[in-house]
Amino acid sequence: MPLDLRSCPELAITGPNPFLEVIHPFIPYPEWASNLDSFPLEATGSWKELPPAYREPLLDCYDQHFVTSQDLFQIAADVQRILRHALVLSNPLKVENLQRTNRVLLSGDRLAMLRLSGLDGAGGIIAAITGSGKTRLICMLLRVLVPKPVVDYGKSDVCGWTKLVQLVYLHLDHATNGTRGGLLHRILEAMDAELGTSYSEENKRTANIDVLLVVVVKKLVLHRVAILVVDEKQEKTFADSAWQIEFALLYLSLMNLGISVLLAGNPLAFENLMIFSQVRRRFAWGGIHHMKPAPTASTRWWSKDFVPGMRKFSLVDSYAVPAEQYEKWLFDGSGGVRGLCAVLHVEAQRHAIRNLTGSVAELSEIDMKAALASPRFKELQSIANAIRTPDQLSSFGFLDLPGPNVSVAGSSSRSAGPSNARTEAISMLQQVHRRMQAETTRASSKFKRLLDAIHTFSPDDSRMLGVSKEMIEEAERFRRNLENEAAAKAGPKATRPASGKDRSNGAT
Question: For position 182, what pLDDT does the model report?
Fold first, then answer.
């Protein structure tokens, strides 16, 4: 069906594009809530006919409930931008796109592909700690924006193909082993799951990573993938990976071929990625977003949008506590994290339903206390506590929660005698010192690995990353300074006997 300018504003400049016809019409910024909100209990009232005790299984359907708070509008709009941008760049009615695609599919290696690329594809990053709802948001966005991800176009003389099966987007988790091969094989597996192909099986014995990379890029181009979404990037599998720069080069190569790349994961995973100017510029096109917990219970998106929307998922008949008290309890218990708030809200209802005093399910303070101590939430509360006291982050044992270095400024206010207070202060200072030493050593090691990797790249790869010769020389000077400082701190090495014969026991 032909598009009009309201559903496809790009028509005013770029002209017709069959790829834009298979996705959702353009969604204006103020209309994201109406397009993303999902309130299953409001859609049907049949659950009210069930006695309260029989409603418990419905609590596990809370993952179908989605609240689009105001802070998510910008992320949603930017994901729509990079998706539509990629489809505009790959317009099949343009002869140059057909020619470029055919040349890529016929190219023999990555360097040949690089010479053929020239599109200014876009990227984007969604960084958030566990429980923030980033994956849920991405899934909802993709489901709304692309109702039918696999499109069989059949023969088209106008577009110049006899058959095309398009995969509009590909969503997968980053390889847990942190290797390039792991990610490339995962891409092929994800394509097989969507298309019913056997690309992964056909290439499972491919040991050469460069050959495998060419295969993967060709398959993505063949099926006109508009946006590659790589989720669950963690610090250990990406930022600490020896191949992090190769990953960046892969993503930049895909963008140069017109494929948008959306990365999502822990904030710590992207620290090193942003030191390259080209990488930062390309990913900034679609926004480098940080989904953070609500800092206070009165934060607008939390108090006006999320919590009221979350309370619409309610299977109890009434609440025995004032709304203000309940909502404050939700914030205190969850630390302002969306996912933790949802679990806490559900567990309070579960206790109320299981412990009926009559024929009506009423949620009380007893249910609220029971929810905090429930097997499902008890361990999660430590995450909320760590977020609430970032200056004591290390004491909770989490390695994937970003925060400031531990500081004695927020020392414990527990009453204790002078000697106990002094002991606690010394212990905390020792923890701070050890943490700072470990972080310094770790950062220095990362920097050295990064510099060693840069030296192995071709001039084309260095240009793609925006790394100049002057930058490398300056980095080398910095590394030498670090090594000299480390040597000075170590002091002269202890002398050792020239041989075993010099030892007092005469042993050799």
Answer: 87
